[in-house]
UniProtKB/TrEMBL annotation:
Enzyme class: transferase
Cited Pfam families: UbiA
Topology within the bilayer: Multi-pass membrane protein
Descriptive protein name: 1,4-dihydroxy-2-naphthoate octaprenyltransferase
UniProt function note: Conversion of 1,4-dihydroxy-2-naphthoate (DHNA) to demethylmenaquinone (DMK).
Keyword set includes Cell membrane: yes
Provenance organism: Mycolicibacterium doricum
Subcellular location: Cell membrane; Membrane
One biological process term in Gene Ontology: vitamin K biosynthetic process
Gene, per the UniProt record: menA
Amino acid sequence: MAGFAEWVEGARPRTLPNAIAPVIAGTGGAAWLDGAVWWKALLAFVVAVALIVGVNYANDYSDGIRGTDDVRAGPLRLVGSKLASPRAVLTAAIASLAVGAVAGLVLAVASAPWLIAVGAVCIAGAWLYTGGSKPYGYIGLGEIAVFVFFGLVAVLGTQYTQALRADWVGLALAVAMGALSSAVLVANNLRDIPTDRESGKITLAVRLGDARTRLLYQALLSTALVLTLVLMLATPWCAVGLVALPLAVRAARPVRGGLGGNELIPVLRDTGLAMLVWAVAVALALAFG
């Protein structure tokens, strides 16, 4: 049976930057509007982390019972490796999503009640990614969902709940975060093309093929670079976001070099680190620049 370390790995900690970085960026956007509120930022943090852990356990459960994870090149999956029962993993997913729902409800009531509907859509999106009879992650829509939920919704939602408005700076931050978050999923699905094709999971990477998926990954990283330059129109201090460039270059090297399988696992880590460093640097620039 899975121990504590296996449950932590099953939560996919490498994906945590996808949750944390948008909240940091959105808080920086709120500070730019002189509207940062620390306790709302903390609530947004709880929502984001709880939802991404919940969706990771939900994916583990859904992919596991479908047999998608029976043969794979990536890190541990609890159900697929039979270290935990499907029921236990499903319970962990529901508990995590419930924590996110409660924190999100408090945040919405304190800011704008109509955001409750947005939160409900986010939870539904988390489950239906690989759950349900027709999961959208199996038809190549995963990257679009990540762009929307971990980019547009997470960043603009964080900015709005604190400043009670959003602006073009928040939108630029949201698109950059969405691009980087999508790049993490693209790298993951690039690694899994052979096994996903065999199991019938038609991701965007499977549709595009190996070569074009590698180009897409690099285009998404470049989008964040371009938006760093755009944000310099708000304050030249946003140039400090370029501090993440060496990490992005390191992340892209295995992709550009044609590596595959387990050799692509560090790409997920380095892309997440680049995203986190970029978010912190740009948020500080907007808050104090």
